[in-house]
Amino acid sequence: MIDQLEQIKREALAEIKQVDSPKDLDTVRVKYLGKKGSITTVLRGMGKLSAEERPKVGQKANEVREEIQASLDKMFAELEERALAEQLEKERIDVTLPGRKVHMGARHPLTAVVEEIEDIFIGLGFQVTEGPEVETDYYNFEALNLPPEHPAREMQDSFYVTEDILLRTHTSPVQARTMEKHEGKGPVKIVCPGKVYRRDDDDATHSHQFMQIEGLYVDENVRMSDLKGTLETFVKEYFGADRSIRLRPSFFPFTEPSVEVDVSCGSCGGDGCRVCKQTGWIEVLGAGMVHPRVLEMSGFDSKKYSGFAFGMGVERFALLKYGIDDIRHFYTNDLRFLEQFTWE
């Protein structure tokens, strides 16, 4: 039996050296050390041995089992190390390769335009003021000289939440709220940027949601010449020093007198082209002197105080500045369009 055990050991050690996976190694273990393995089979015949031979055979069996187990453990460690090395080789990273370019975001073109316009007016002494987008009928209409029966309300088809609450149709309510807070004491000098909403069919030049910036200056002895000078300075700062403005009579319920403001066409220099419809001018905003009734409803003495107000569409200014032909580009989140403004 001792010879048999030696033969089993030699065979086991030889097979262990040939395996190349943990699964094959376990098969060898079961073959030699399992309950039905070779060593167990030999030991079952010990009952036929004499009392003197049994301890020797038992000792030899233990030695063979320990040697085989040690060889199994060593080979298992080698297989694990080999597998780890192969995995590391597959996952090896070349640290000398250049890094991947990080895709950086940028300001939306409308945000860039709003901030640029704000900066210009801040430089002229205005403060930036904001207000709620969901407004009451009073601040959106009545406080701006638009009582319930006023026909001009039909010009602004509105989104009503209730009979008295709606999505604001302009940022003028911010002006009314700000004047109220001043309790009839000037000066008030603000610009009010923000989203506004009107029931309109979306097309290349219209949207049911768009952005406005309105301005207000109320103080003693504010004149129409102050309005013209302010807007002329703004236009030259925004469009360029070679541009000029003209004022045309118009009508707005909250200003009197009221004007439409045109800027000279940058494409033709005022000579007339397709962009300006051969007129040499492009309409950009509305303005006027604050109506005395609007001042009085906000707590100001219209005999002591006067003021001017103006309002512009941010999208229109962005269209003109960047030569964009469709307002819907601003709201479709098309990266091909937005990536053109990564330098902004």
TrEMBL record:
Indicate the segments forming the Aminoacyl-transfer RNA synthetases class-II family profile domain, all copies. Answer: 73-320
Q: What is its EC number?
A: 6.1.1.20
Which reactions appear under catalytic activity for this entry?
tRNA(Phe) + L-phenylalanine + ATP = L-phenylalanyl-tRNA(Phe) + AMP + diphosphate + H(+)
Note on cofactor:
Binds 2 magnesium ions per tetramer.
Note the NCBIfam families from the entry: pheS
**Keyword hit for Nucleotide-binding:** yes
SUPFAM superfamilies from the UniProt entry: Class II aaRS and biotin synthetases, tRNA-binding arm
Single Gene Ontology MF annotation: phenylalanine-tRNA ligase activity
- Report the gene name: pheS
| Required co-factors | Mg(2+)
Q: Which organism is it from?
A: Aliibacillus thermotolerans
Protein name (record):
Phenylalanine--tRNA ligase alpha subunit
Q: Where in the cell is it found?
A: Cytoplasm
The record's annotation in InterPro entries points to: aa-tRNA-synth_II, aa-tRNA-synth_II/BPL/LPL, Phe-tRNA-synth_IIc_asu, Phe-tRNA_ligase_II_N, Phe_tRNA_ligase_alpha1_bac, Phenylalanyl-tRNA_Synthase, tRNA-bd_arm
Describe the protein's quaternary organization and the partners it interacts with: Tetramer of two alpha and two beta subunits.
* Keyword terms of this UniProt record: Aminoacyl-tRNA synthetase, ATP-binding, Cytoplasm, Ligase, Magnesium, Metal-binding, Nucleotide-binding, Protein biosynthesis
Instruction: Identify the Pfam families for this entry.
Output: Phe_tRNA-synt_N (PF02912), tRNA-synt_2d (PF01409)
The record's family statement is:
Belongs to the class-II aminoacyl-tRNA synthetase family. Phe-tRNA synthetase alpha subunit type 1 subfamily.
Q: What CDD domains does the database record attribute to this sequence?
A: PheRS_alpha_core (cd00496)
Stretches of the chain forming a coiled coil according to its record: none
Q: Where does Mg(2+) bind?
A: E256
